[in-house]
Amino acid sequence: MSAFTLIRNAWIISNDDQIGDLRRGSLLIRNGEIVQIAEDIEQPEGCDVIEADGFLAIPGFVDAHKHLWQAALRGICGDMTLLGYFETIRQNYIASYRPEDVRVGNYACALELLNSGSTSVLDHSHCIITPDHADAVVEATLDAGIRGVWAYGYCPVWESDAFRKQEDRIADAYRIRQRYFASDDNLLRMGVAITEQQLLPFEYTEMEVRSALDMNVKWTAHTHCGNGAAPISRGIYKLYAKDLVNELAILSHCNEFTFNDFVMMNEVGAHFASSPDSEIYMGITKPVNFIEAIAAGTPVSLGTDTVSCMSADMFANMRLTLNFARHQINAPAAAGFQAVLHQKVSVRDVFRMATINGARALGIDHLVGSLVPGKRADILLIEAGQPNLAPMTDPIASLVLQGQVSNVDTVLVDGKIKKRHGKLVGVDLQKLNRELSASHAYLQANTHVEERDLAHEVDRWSDRLTEAAVDA
Residue 469 pLDDT more than 70? Predict the structure, then answer.
């Protein structure tokens, strides 16, 4: 394999204000790095060439909030609310998960992301029941070859004998950091996913965040996204008051945030990830407040959330985001019988949410999110001549309004081809499907789904961990 790859004669959407878009241009890649973008590039000797006439070349999508481990439970949440999901998936099914189940789930969903055009992801991995589960899920994600942040989840709502107290989980996160993520220059980086606030006494939440700060890794949290009077996920202000929220924080959902909340988090450099499809689906009565986030100048990033509920289709998520944001912003004018004269959220704004904004949230925007010499070659080739895209006037508008996963012809991650001519490369899908089916059958046969009083379960779990800490 040559050190050089030349993508020739593509319509290049750089996502960079200085470079702009090239109606017919080429990209030269050397050892995974973009080294030149121009209308015409001389082909180096021995160079691999991808002829891209009739294709768009765009940066890979960045999924800033995803739970990859649930692939064997795909579609199981048909009509569930958030509380139904919490009880069924986070209480019942997770109790049956073996290391091999999280392994195949994470691997399968990472491939779904790559097939869909997402070359980077933040994996909120709240499936760490034992250290063996942690090893299995990390190794599977590394095997898939996706870029991003793997966030060690301190937060399975399940009583694990392997972790008698929260300090045990944190110690295991340090083990994982040392074993798999000693360098921060790898394709996949370490992160931390904290337990939903109010599920534990505050001192444990503080301990979790401080572990991320000590390791100097990104940390993420489901933030202010619960329904009703239950306090689950609320409490970010306590962390803010202790100066624990900074640029390492990625706050997901934030459905109850107001303009001032977004301004506060902006001032300390915290990032924000929205997944409006799963939020609306799960019955959250106030999906993310785009009108106030955008007014506060918050750079919104997008995630596709739970595999058991949603697909990894960033095209569909961009469309929903655009429509919902415009609906929120335009509704006040419409309520006063005023004409809407201008759209305050553009298709290019939403495209940035799915690319460079997500890269900034993950702390990898110096590497990906736009096509610029010096960045890594995470690139999608989109077949522009497909019936849903042709003829193409504004490529960004076409991608956001009409794009589909089926249009993703080629996917490169760090210059390596992961998908070509519409097919994943080097993946035995028959073997994977057999393993997924076996995992699904095992989980179905070994999981007793029962309705529980969630408030009682929250109290019981918190009491147990508190007692374990006292006993220790």
Answer: no
Residues 60 and 459: their CA atoms lie apart, in Å, by 42
Q: Which bin fits 302, alpha (ψ -120 to 50), beta or left (φ > 0)?
A: beta
Could you tell me the strand order of the sheet in which 147-153 lies? Answer: 300-302, 271-274, 249-253, 218-223, 188-193, 147-153, 118-125, 61-67, 305-306
- Strand (E) or helix (H) holding 251: strand 249-253
Longest dimension (CA), the chain: 70
User: What is the full DSSP assignment across 279-299?
Assistant: HHHTT-SS---HHHHHHTT--
In whole angstroms, what is the distance from residue 167 CA to residue 143 CA?
29
Compute φ and ψ for 103, nearest 5 degrees.
Answer: -65, -55
Domain boundaries, the chain: 4-59+369-424, 61-362
Cβ–Cβ under 8 Å, residues 187 and 415: no
Peptide bond before residue 391 is cis, with ω within 30 degrees of 0: yes
201 or 7, greater pLDDT:
7
Task: For the chain, give the percent of residues with pLDDT over 70.
Answer: 93
Phi and psi (nearest 5°) for 250?
-125, 110
417 close to 406: Cβ distance less than 8 angstroms: no
**Distance from C-alpha of 446 to C-alpha of 98, rounded to nearest angstrom:** 11
- 3-state DSSP assignment of residue 348: helix
**pLDDT tens column, 321-344:** 999 999 999 988 878 889 888 999
Measured distance CA(472)–CA(465) in Å, rounded: 11
Contacts of 462 (CB under 8 A, 6+ apart): 199, 200, 201
Q: Which CATH architecture has domain 61-362?
A: Alpha-Beta Barrel (3.20)
Asked if the model's pLDDT at residue 157 lies above 70, the reply is no
Would you call 223 helix, strand, or coil by DSSP?
A: strand
Answer yes or no: is pLDDT of 233 > 60: yes
Measured distance CA(302)–CA(320) in Å, rounded: 11
Tokens of 40: 């015409």
Q: What pLDDT, in 10s, does the model give residues 420-451?
A: 999 999 999 999 999 999 999 999 999 987 66
CA dihedral 146, 149, 154, 155 (to 10 degrees): -70
4-59+369-424 matches 61-362 in fold: no
- Residue 73: DSSP 8-state: G
CATH of domain 4-59+369-424: 2.30.40.10
pTM comes to: 0.95
Contact status, residue 218 vs residue 237, Cβ threshold 8 Å:
no
